[in-house]
Amino acid sequence: MSKGRFRVGTGVRDWLIAVGVAAALLVTGVSGQHSGTGLDLLGYVLLVSGGLVLAAGRRAPVPVLAGTGFCAVGYQAAGFDVAAVAYLFAVYAAMRAGHRVITVVVSVAVLAALPLAALVSGLHDTGQAFAQARGALEIAWLIAAGAAGEALRQAERRADEAERTREETALHRADEERLHIARELHDSLTHQISVIKVQAEAAVHVARKRGEEVPEALLAIREAGREASRELRATLEALRDDDKFPPRGLDHVPELVERAGRSGLEATLTIGGQRHDVPAAVGRTAYRVVQESLTNIARHADAGTASVHIDYQPDALAIRIDDDGRATPDGVPEPGIGLLGMRERVTALGGRLRAEPRSEGGFTVQAELPLERAS
Predict the structure, then answer these.
(1) What is d(CA 301, CA 79) in angstroms, rounded to the nearest whole number?
(2) Which residue pairs from 153-161 have beta carbons closer than 8 angstroms and sit at least 24 positions apart in sequence?
(3) Across the chain, which distance is largest between two alpha carbons, in Å?
(4) Mean of per-residue pLDDT scores for the chain
């Protein structure tokens, strides 16, 4: 729903309905047949009162039900042949509030009193009085049927909106779970890995200061600590998405390429198509695809160059990352966690991901992210 759409408050809407019903009853009473006795003023008051009392229908449905029923019987007795429209609105409000028994009891009383009121008015004999009472309710039942149809339409519309937002809710819950996992990892692993790293660094420094040969196992522990620290930092950065670590997007891709260049990889970035705003989810996923691809190239590809190409299309964002590493079409790379994570992100947006060796050598990652589904 658009946030800019004009919305009427519940209280204002109730008053608008009440005034509209009161006006309709009054116009019908003025233009219709009535007794022409001294009770006319009382009848007009009851017609207007029966409509205006509906404004309190949400707060006091049972008193409003009784009040509209009394007004309907009253203006019938005063000689006004007007349908009991306001009473049907009160029935709807009372049933919606859950007052089923009292609604049935009051309705039976009103049905029994309407023919008597028609007889009291002096305009009809017994047969006509019952016919008049039945006619007064027939129009009201038509209005009630319309109201029920509108209520059903609104319920179906809300169900459709719930269906459309279900996937968005699931993604939101997944983001919350990732943040929870990131915090748990930070609390449980960061300290221990930092201790291992510091102790190993200190041991290597002391051994070299003494002129002793540093054991290979100790060097391996130190390097493993460094690598684990880097891996954990990258994982936490990818998982966390809060105010302290704002989400990365397409605007941050040049930083990735520049960082890859500082690590010794000749990386280039080209952007094609006409740039336009894309949904935040698409921007985040595009960033993660480029980030993971460049990380894999630096660690595993033994490549000298890498190229990142982003193409803005009218209904999609296309990404391609190529390298000149040692991957060949004959080799079947084993998919790692990074590649699986990329595929899950892309698939969640309804996109496609292709990651495989190139025929001319090296590796390519291609992703296509639709824009409409992520909006």
Answers:
(1) 95
(2) 161/1
(3) 124
(4) 78
- Asked whether residue 1 carries a pLDDT value surpassing 60, the answer given is no
Residue 42 has what pLDDT? 84
Q: Helix 216-239 and helix 126-185: axis angle, to 10°?
A: 160
Contact 85, 21 (CB under 8 A): yes
Q: What is the pLDDT of residue 139?
A: 54
Q: What count of residues does the chain have?
A: 375
| Contact (Cβ atoms closer than 8 angstroms) between residue 350 and residue 373 | yes
C-alpha–C-alpha distance, residues 364 and 306, integer Å: 10
Split at pLDDT 50, 70, 90, the class of 306 is very high
| Higher pLDDT, residue 270 or 333 | 270
Q: Which two tokens stand for residue 272?
A: 């094609």
Residues 363, 274: Cα–Cα separation, whole Å: 27
Nearest-angstrom CA–CA distance, 84 and 57:
16
C-beta neighbour count of 217 within 10 angstroms: 8
Reading the block at residue 294, the tokens are 């460049």
CA 66/CA 102 separation, integer angstroms: 10
Does residue 132 or residue 221 have the better pLDDT? 221
* Backbone angles phi and psi of 26, in degrees to 5: -65, -45
Dihedral angle over CA of 62, 67, 69, 75, nearest 10: -170
Q: Residue 180 corresponds to which tokens in the numbers above?
A: 């929870």
* CA dist., res. 99 & res. 64, Å (int): 12
* Dist. CA 96–CA 70, nearest whole Å: 21
Provide the strand spans (E) within the chain: 266-273, 305-312, 316-323, 352-357, 363-370
Higher per-residue pLDDT: 73 or 307 = 307
> What's the rounded Cα separation, in Å, for the pair 105 and 100?
9
Q: What is the DSSP string of 279-299?
A: -HHHHHHHHHHHHHHHHHIII
Question: What is the mean pLDDT of the segment spanning 122-141?
Answer: 57
Q: To 10 degrees, what angle do helices 10-31 and 85-96 make?
A: 150
Task: Give the pLDDT confidence score for residue 135 in this predicted structure.
Answer: 57
H or E element at residue 176: helix 126-185
More confident residue, 264 or 72: 72
